[in-house]
Amino acid sequence: MQYVHNFNPTISDDEIFVNILEEKEHIGYYNLVSQETALYKEYAKTVKQKNIVVIGIGGSTLGTYAIYKFLKHSKELSKKLFFLETTDPIDIQSKIEGVDLEDSLFIVISKSGTTVETISIFKYLHSLVEINADNCVVVTEHDSKLNHYAKVHGMKQFEIPKNVGGRFSVFSAVGLLPLAIVGIDIDSLLNGAKEIHDGFFYDKNGTRTRLLKKARFFTEYKNKFNINVVFSYSSRLEGFNKWYIQLWGESLGKIDINETRQGLTPIGIIGPIDQHSFLQLIIEGRRDKTVTVIKVENFDNDLEIPSVTLEGLEELDYLNGLKFSSLINKQADATIESINAVKDIPCDVIMIDGVCESAIAGLMYEYKLLTSLCAKFMYINAYDQPGVENGKIILKKKLENKN
Amino acid sequence: MQYVHNFNPTISDDEIFVNILEEKEHIGYYNLVSQETALYKEYAKTVKQKNIVVIGIGGSTLGTYAIYKFLKHSKELSKKLFFLETTDPIDIQSKIEGVDLEDSLFIVISKSGTTVETISIFKYLHSLVEINADNCVVVTEHDSKLNHYAKVHGMKQFEIPKNVGGRFSVFSAVGLLPLAIVGIDIDSLLNGAKEIHDGFFYDKNGTRTRLLKKARFFTEYKNKFNINVVFSYSSRLEGFNKWYIQLWGESLGKIDINETRQGLTPIGIIGPIDQHSFLQLIIEGRRDKTVTVIKVENFDNDLEIPSVTLEGLEELDYLNGLKFSSLINKQADATIESINAVKDIPCDVIMIDGVCESAIAGLMYEYKLLTSLCAKFMYINAYDQPGVENGKIILKKKLENKN
């Protein structure tokens, strides 16, 4: 008997780990945790402008926004960060009205260098303000056409390595440059990410087992639970949710080596707000969702409900004297208990330490590893996005035909 | 032979319409389109404060935010609207820092009158500023405990009818009061909603057929396509997306009369931003999603890409002279074409006329009707939310035990 093997079944944890180690040799994001950061910090010191305007879209902005949104009210930041990322004319106009362009540094970020949205907005800025080496830097691949433009104008350039994909690029120049400029401690960011990196690769703190089990669960149950909800109990994590949606959706929505469509659908919601929106669907709806609740252990904030009694509302006096940080975490716990009470909704909880650089960076690195692992289990390439190419070709044709 | 009938199969369009007509007798949102608005407009004229601070959560804020976010940059509004809606202490603090509380009108909105988040924040405000009949009004059910408080203090009260659920309440005092105060034309809002109301109930412009077909499709294919993506091509519609997610998720995530879990999962994304995030998953992922693309026909905005040539980027000169409003709509068209090209993703397109009151209100009323219709087809009650009650009980216990 002869036999041709053509099935690709689930592989073992050990095999997956070996695969990831091999991948780490050529996929760039893994090792960004131990890079040299001096070039960002040195450049940051030279920036005189008060406003930092990032022009980019998708992977060029989402990670930076996630970290900035998480930290901006808890740190004394020296500068303000703005994002121009869409072609909606009203959005562009209203955002630009709020910025003093004469006191702005423009950071143009595009991995390919030819992103339509980014270049359109960048061109538009040329009609409002003089763009030159004093107020503009680019972040792009070393041989991109945008880099050529920067060279012609003597502008400072920062490189996105070819082997770091946009949605995995937050710890490259894409994120580190603007974050360093506004005053975020990028070494603490990398340390937070490195802790998870080391935990996984050197098998500390149960990190490797945790990630492998979670990735295996998500992929083994992917046909039943095709939706993965991240329920973040802090409005500070709104940017993280958006970043997660891109990372998860764009990395895992793929055709696998068996020519089968794969895809785990990410949803990001915010507690307690979405207790009043999405929770009903989780609890009573179809069993097609996993839920990961993210809690901030320490808000480092003393805001308290005062001992005020409102006539008629005395029944709510049990709220008096309670800290809001305690209230929101008890709300998270109540949600977790109510989900667990129905028994058949897979639910896990991530507690991050505080509103600090290392906490958000660790969370993001954890999710990147999880994404890479799920992709391995699913026999797909996490790092490309062939599905959006056709839309780009159609758009180009439409726009060229207009002329 | 005797026979006991215990199946509830799909019902006909005519039966559904009769059911909705019956429901219209006792579910209040349907008829809000033809109410008297003088009381809101009269009160709005008396408001002296520059800042309008809404304290509420879920259905008490999402609809108002959707309309305000859609219109605020396109209308000359006389006042600014703020929303305090979460117990995240950093969020509360940073929002309050941006508002002059001494020049603020506080609108406390809670249907039940005892919403934990709303009352907690309201109590906190008492520690910052004197709250009295001159700077505070309440919007609640006529016999709620919050109304009792308002009466004691001689505060103006506006009623949420008992038969109008929170997520269906945007065209009641919940939305009309704050929107009228900041200068939005609430009669135009109601006219926009009324056009869809009349289209459906008097069978004009194909509205009834369109809505019935769409609701029937969503429910007949609910086990294959359990996710309904709304892909809005304007950042102005970000609030609408959030409102849609509550409306759809909380109304349709229910146990039906056959004791079977139902639930259509809403996702709201923004174009073109999410072409760089979620589109890959739509195109190459599992076929578990329908897609509704929403386009704004007329942005009434002349922002244009100037005829600037960037060295090295000459290939993108086809963008020169293009209006951003045209670019974003061509991006929407390219996305629609690329989705249709793969043939097996159900996709429809809604074009709204412009950035005006009637357009957003019509869109919202359309979605409310669609939700009611899906619920009828699915034999569920669109208007309750029993699944979140247990979490509230658990939270109350946790908080009372602390004392």
Describe this structure in words.
2 copies of one chain form a homodimer. The first copy, chain A, has 14 helices and 9 strands. In chain A, the strands form 2 sheets. Chain A has a 5-stranded parallel beta sheet with strand order 2-1-3-4-5, sandwiched between helices. The first copy, chain A, has a 4-stranded parallel beta sheet with strand order 7-6-8-9, with helices on both faces. The model of chain A has no long low-confidence stretch (mean pLDDT 96). Chain A is α/β, with parallel strands linked by helices. Helix content of chain A is 43%, strand content 13%. At the A-B interface, α4, α5, α6, α10 and β7 of A face α4, α5, α6, α10 and β7 of B.
- Strand line-up of the largest beta sheet of chain A: 2-1-3-4-5
Biggest interface, CB < 8 A: A-B, 120 and 120 residues
- How many individual domains of chain A? 2
Can you tell me the CATH class of the largest domain in chain A?
Alpha Beta
Q: What is the overall number of helices of chain A?
A: 14
The proportion of residues forming helix of chain A, as a percent range, comes to 40-55%
Largest sheet of chain A: 5 strands, parallel
| Straight-line distance between termini of chain A | 64 Å
Would you tell me which CATH topology of the largest domain in chain A applies?
A: Rossmann fold
Strand percentage of chain A: 5-15%
Mean pLDDT of chain A: 96
Per DSSP E runs of 2 or more residues, the count of β-strands of chain A stands at 9
Helix and strand composition category of chain A: alpha/beta
Radius of gyration of chain A: 23 Å
Tertiary shape of chain A: globular
Q: Which quaternary structure do these chains form?
A: homodimer
SSE topology string of chain A: HHEHEHEHEHEHHHEHEHEHEHH
Q: What is the correct CATH architecture of the largest domain in chain A?
A: 3-Layer(aba) Sandwich
Going by CATH, the homologous superfamily of the largest domain in chain A would be Glucose-6-phosphate isomerase like protein, domain 1
The poorly predicted ranges of chain A are none
